[in-house]
Amino acid sequence: MTVDRVAGVALGALALFVLVESRKLPLGTLHNPGPAYMPVVLALTMLGFAAALVAFGGRAPHVATVGWRDWRHTAAILGAGAFAALALERLGFRLTVALLLLVLVGVVERRHPLTAVAYAVAMALGTFFLFNTILRVPLPRGPFGL
Amino acid sequence: MLETFANLAHGFAVALSPGVLLYAFLGCLVGTLVGVLPGVGPLAGISLLLPATFGLDATRAIVMLAGIYYGAMYGGSTTSILMRIPGEAASVMTCIDGYAMARKGRAGAALAIAAVGSYIAGTASVVALMFLAPPLAHFALRFGPPEYFALLVLGLLVLAYMSTGSMLRALAMAVLGLLLGMVGIDQMSGFFRFAYGVVELGDGIGVVPVAVGLFGLSEIMLTAGAAVPQEVIKPRLRELLPSRREWREAWWPIWRGTWLGFLIGIIPGSAHIISSFVSYAVERKLSRHPEEFGKGAVAGVAGPESANNSATSGAFVPMLALGVPSGPIPAVMLAAMMVHGVSPGPLLIRQQPDLFWGFIASMYVGNVVLLILNLPLVGLFVNVLRIPYPLLYPAILTFSIIGVYAVNNSVVDVWIMLATGLLGYVLRKLDFETAPIVLGLVLAPMLELSLRQSLAMSDGHYAIFVTRPISAVLLGAALVLVLLGLRPLISRGLDWRARLALAEKGEPS
Amino acid sequence: MMRVRVFVAVLAALLAPAALAAAQEPYPSRPITIVVPFPPGGVADLHARPLAAALEKVLKNPVAVLNKAGAAGAVGMQHVATSRPDGYTLLLALSSISIIPEADKLFGRQPAYTVDQFEPLALLSADPTILVVRSELPWKTAREFIEDARKRPGEIAFSSSGIYGTLHMAMELLSHAAGIKLRHLPTTGAGPAINALLGGHVHAMASGPAAVIAHIEAGKLRPLASWGDRRHPALPDVPTFRELGYPEAEFYIWAGVFAPRGLPPAVRARLDEALRQAVAEPEFRQAMEKLKTPIAFKQGEEFRKFFEADARRLAEGVRRVGRIEEKKEDKR
């Protein structure tokens, strides 16, 4: 189970998915390609590459050698990002940014709670001022006008 | 010729007048700020600040917008080098070698080279713009769908020279990028492809969220989670400037990048992004140490950065000479002109000499201003690296989210950034390259559209690609490149006998 | 548990008057947002900004412009269609507003929004499209063009800003009215379409006047006819298709203000009044003049009739065009 083989299988699966989905679109002809034409051509090419990766992938490093030990940290960062995406237009900009940073600095990075709060509030208000007031970029406001 | 200089002198008189100079400076300052923001590139910067210029007169408004444009290009390289987050899509290539240089402690050198290269490229291309605008513009207009297609095929071949590792992996990533580019409304038939009801995907997966996610977010996830904190060598003041060797290595790439970028920039369309990709590939091909690319080759920063900046001047050629929008950024500038009552068109140079020459002169001035702004700031920016990473990356993440959101006021873009961030993280763990994905994403829709447009123009006959001179030449060049690329394979095959002989003699081949 | 209930009750009691007050607040008391479903610098944007400035003056209340571009306008339009009809979210739409749901229906997909979700408030401008050809080409009048097109169906090419887009629909209306068949080259926007024409890659194009007047003056393009009901003030020598005997070829790239359906009558009345005053503001007029776009203000019933007639024409046009892929497959 080398790196190349795993990638090959994943890409091959994606290519098959594209091929199946492309059946909903008209294919057209060589002289008049339809919306499905290029996706199908690309998917077939991808299948070819995926097969090559699987076939010649024996010499690549093993999957187990890749260090996944930091996955929790990564998941935390992604989770925080996802929260921000969900909250941005619902809770408003300043609240979202403050909460995001509070979680990242205080919980994930385990800094002193006071540092976390100061950082979060400063960034939230500072960036809002910079963008909304100075650069006049409209930023979403939440329920309390935040 | 003499007339041009007289006009230019007049232009400088306009550009150096305190009012106009102030706005040029303001524009550059704001542009740098905006450019430093991840994801918010020149287009977003100009669009966001366009309303602020409505109250000004035409010359000042255009000069300020141009300043923002240039400033954003300069600023974009800063985040690319320091944090591996592309300031805009075109800075993606700078991320690769620029960040590697920063890791080796040469951040200051990289920033300086980027700044100086951008300055030289910007100034040289403005000179070219000045003298060559009208004839070049006519040439540029002859680029129709078939020519565009041929050019993009050439661009696609560039991928082969971009990879620093296994060719198979790079190509697989390129095809992945091409596939991602298929999402969205099909321009020729009106079908929604692979969008699954998400209206925001109608224009396809944006390149900005993908670039920021694939490069920047993945970097954050990789570095923040690393068990041992990454040792970033903090340079001393003396080491901030490039060494003599580094300047020598940067010199020719800067000039090559300038010309390449300018030529690509003139062509109407969104080909400007590929100018940095093409420059990187050219530099790698011409370099005497190609293995350095990806690990901090000076040419890998100098070339793309220069190409970037001169492409911006190139983009103005059709805009100023013919009043024709050659891309989204010139389109916004044209709109700004219209708002101020200036009719952009072929007669612009004659009817509005103040505006035209003032604009050109302000580009010179702007480049100087930006150089003066950026060089001392190199020290300041490098100090940002001293902030302990666990405190730095939340700020970077926040700015990335803001930048990506602000471009289109769209949360969907933020989700795309997160998804590609995860993708980039996994791919880099598996040691796959991510730059080809961005190139594929950018090229795919343009490639497909120009192919189908060409066939629409010719009613299905493929002969159109060879009967039109420009496209025939470009396709011929592409064919030559492919054959050249295959030559090593053929000659290696022929060499197997020689190698067998060597092996029999007991010597390693 | 009891304490929680008391707490909630007290909280409700405290907040209730606030909520009641909010519901009875005079309109407007918060910033109003005009959503422009196109990127900055485009036609809609250039209408929205002066309008926002004028409205702000009239209502003495902040009015901001929000660009929410995507999918030829569908993203922004969907956003407003699903917003609360409280008068704080308005839409500045172009004639494509009626085209997009029709195109969705054609492809059998769930429409991003329907025209019924909107209440038309006011029309700001209605620029007729102009038929322009490259000046090197032999057609000097629209009649010559149409006759030539009849003789060689499918050979004369025109560019448009996108399939089922405004410029495509304009040509389609002409093709149907005059019984001709043209070759269509869709591009990604009005800018690239003009580039294609100027570069000689197509022969003709339907364009908004503001974008091509400079080229006409420079002699690069020749205007043949206009899709309006009367001649355009900047091009007095250009006849209308109506004059030439094709009254169904009527098309405007108009810009209008819409709101989500269901506005309270008091809010609606206030908005109508404010729009009427805003359009009369000298700064607004000046801005429109600079853009060479004549103001064509319609409100209420008048606008509704205009809008519905236009929507009907465009819906028929879209259905006639049909799905290109199917037609082409039949041919082969």
Fold blueprint:
The complex is a heterotrimer of chains A (146), B (509) and C (332).
Chain A: H1 3-22, H2 37-56, H3 71-91, H4 93-108, H5 113-134
Chain B: H1 2-15, H2 18-36, H3 42-49, H4 58-83, H5 92-103, H6 107-141, H7 145-162, H8 167-180, E1 184-185, E2 192-193, H9 207-224, H10 244-266, H11 272-286, H12 299-322, H13 328-339, H14 348-351, H15 353-384, H16 389-408, H17 411-429, H18 435-457, H19 464-467, H20 469-504
Antiparallel strand pairs in B: 1-2
Helix pairs in contact in B: 1-15, 2-4, 2-15, 3-4, 3-13, 4-5, 4-6, 4-12, 4-13, 4-15, 5-6, 5-12, 6-10, 6-12, 6-15, 7-11, 7-18, 7-20, 8-18, 9-16, 9-17, 9-18, 10-11, 10-12, 11-12, 16-17
Chain C: H1 2-24, E1 32-36, H2 43-59, E2 63-67, H3 74-81, E3 89-94, H4 99-106, E4 118-128, E5 130-134, H5 142-151, E6 157-160, H6 166-178, E7 183-186, H7 190-198, E8 204-207, H8 209-217, E9 221-226, E10 252-260, H9 265-280, H10 282-290, E11 295-299, H11 300-321, H12 324-331
Index terms:
heterotrimer, A: 146 residues, mainly alpha, flat, C: 332 residues, alpha/beta, D-Maltodextrin-Binding Protein, domain 2, 2 domains, disordered C terminus
The residue fraction in helices of chain A comes out at 55-70%
Low-confidence stretches of chain A: none
% residues in beta strands of chain A = under 5%
Supply the number of helical segments of chain C. 12
Number of extended strands of chain C: 11
